[in-house]
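Issue 218. Parser rejects a valid record. Input:
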Amino acid sequence: MTMAADARVQRLVTLLQSALHPPPGGKRIFFALFIGVICHLLFAAAVGAMMIEMFFGLSRSYGSVPWPWAGLLDFALIIQFPLTHSFLLTGTGSRYLSRFIPGPHGATLATTTYAIIASLQLLALFLLWTPTHIIWWQAEGAVFWGICALYAISWCLLIKASFDAGAEVQSGALGWMSLMAKIRPVFPDMPTEGLFRIIRQPIYVAFAMTLWTVPVWTPDQLSLAVCYTLYCFFAPRLKERRFESRYGERFRHYREAVPYACPRLFASRRNSDA
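Output the parser choked on:
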């Protein structure tokens, strides 16, 4: 499949072309651009904060709450993201997202609103975290560069999985670009291409990998890694219930053919033997 024929690329190109040639409506266009700029600035800041803070094992964050209250606040910062993230994906949460921005454009901007909220949550987690200032282990020399390479690979896999799932949704662009073009947001189909050919949950697996491939280990990083790895393992099961309800037999067939989180490394040998 060529890049031009890739449905993932075609969706992005079509959406971008529609947004670049919007129908008349100055206020609508300005509002869409304003929300889009806010969304992507926050998204970039959140990803940057996450990459940097985890790289240093959460040892250089900016929280200054005295202990032991800092432990309670840090725990609250950890759980606020998965709880809100999961709630907003439910039917009730989706209706809340549609009404979050007052006016006639709330439903169109739902995916952008979701990305803005998630970005603010991540910024709160990684910038307001109060470090213990305890460093258990810090990689050096060749080990440091090897772990850095694994960390970079983990992030590349996360970016690739997000692209395979639908970059316009994952980045929040679908909402504001659809408003710009004055069209109904069209969500990507059930993802089965790219990394989704290998496992059903590549985004969650790649994110879990970023948690464990850091060169500095602290009690802070271990707490984050354990909690969010558990989230990455269990949360997708709720997502798969929604997919089964939405896609029915098609998703059940996909679920039987593709493993949940661990690739079937020897599947081709078994098939050839059969």
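Fixed in the parser; the record now loads. The CA atoms of residues 178 and 185 lie 5 Å apart.
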